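Tutorial sheet, problem 5. The two components below are modelled jointly, 355 residues in total.
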Amino acid sequence: MEQAIAPGQVPAEYIEPNYLAIWLYLAVLTALELLVVYARLDKALMIGLLIGLAWAKVAMVAMYFMHLRFERRGMLVVALSPLLLIVVMVTAMVPDVSTRDYARRHSGEVAWMVQAVAHNLQGGNPNSVGLSKPQGNGAGR
Amino acid sequence: MSEGSMTVGTPALQAASPEHGGFEEAVETPLTPDSRGKLGMWIFLVGDATTFGTAIAAYAALRIGNVNWPVPSTILGIPATALMTFILICSSMTMVQGLAAIRQGRQAAFRAFLFLTILGGLLFLGLQAREWHHLIFERGLSIKTSLFSATFFLLTGFHGCHVIAGVLLLSVLLIRGLFGGLGAAQARTVEVAGLYWHFVDLVWILIFTFVYLI
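Model answer (C-alpha cells):
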C-alpha cells in the first residue's frame, strides 16, 4: 500500500478502503465478544480473548476509519505514543495493587488486626476475648 | 524534518491566500494549511487517549486490588450495551461514507450520511441515559455507593461527554452543509471532525470490553 505520495504532500486521489468489509469485521468481532462472554469459559482465557478482540477492533478503526494506514509513518508513531505513556502509568500503579494484593491474600489476618485494634481502643486486651487469630498465612487464598 | 521546519512559513502563507490557490511546489513542509487541522486533532486525540488510558488503568488497579468487586454482567445490561456498541460502529461507517461523499462533491449524500451519524450518536446517548436512569433510580447506585459504581459512572460519563461534544460538532457541520457552507474544498474539516468521531467509537470499544464484558 506504499503509494507514490511524496511526504508532506496531499495526495490527489484519496484511498477509499472497502468500508463495508471493515464494518462487517467490527460487527462480527462484537458478536464474537458476546459469544466469549456467554460461553462461560475459564476466566483467564475469557479475559485474554476479550482483550485480544478489543484491540483487534481498535486497530481496525484506527488504521482504516481514521486513515492511519494511509498517513505517513510518523503519524502512526504519534498515534501510538499514548500506549507507551499508559505502560508507564500502569507501572506506577503496581505498588498500590501489590500492597492491596497482600491484604487480599491475608484477608483473615488483616480482619483480625482491625478487630484487635478496635477492641484495644475500647480498653480490652486484644488477645483475650472472642478473637481467634488465624493460623498460618494465605488463609484467604 | 529540519529543512522542512525552516521553510514552513513561506509556502504555507502563500497557499493560504486565495490568489495563490494553485500554488504547488515540491517543498517538503510538515505543516500545510491542509494538514495542520488534522495534526492539531491528532495532538488533541493523543492527549485524550492518555487521559482515557490513565482512567482505565486506575480502574483496573482498583478492581484488581479489591476482593468484593461484582461481576459487571450481574448489574449492567450486556445486550443493550452491545447494541450501543453496534450503533457507534454503524455511525463510524456513515461518517466515512459522508467524508467520501463530500470529497466527491455529492452534497445530498454527504448531508444524509452526516445526519445518520448524528442520529447514531443521539441513539447512543438515549440508550446511555436510559441505562443511567435505571442504575441511579431503580438500583440506587451513585458515584458514592462503591468503587464499582464510581469507576463505572466516571468512565462511561467521561465518554458520554465526548459523544455529546461529537454530536454538537457534527451538528455544526450539518448546519453549515445545509446552508451551503461546505463544499469539496472543506472536505478536510469533515475529515478532522471524523477523526474525533472515530476516536470516540474506538474508546467505547475498550470501555465496553473492560467495564462491561470482563
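Marking note: Confidence is low (pLDDT under 50) at residues 1-12, 137-141 of chain A. Full credit if you identified this.
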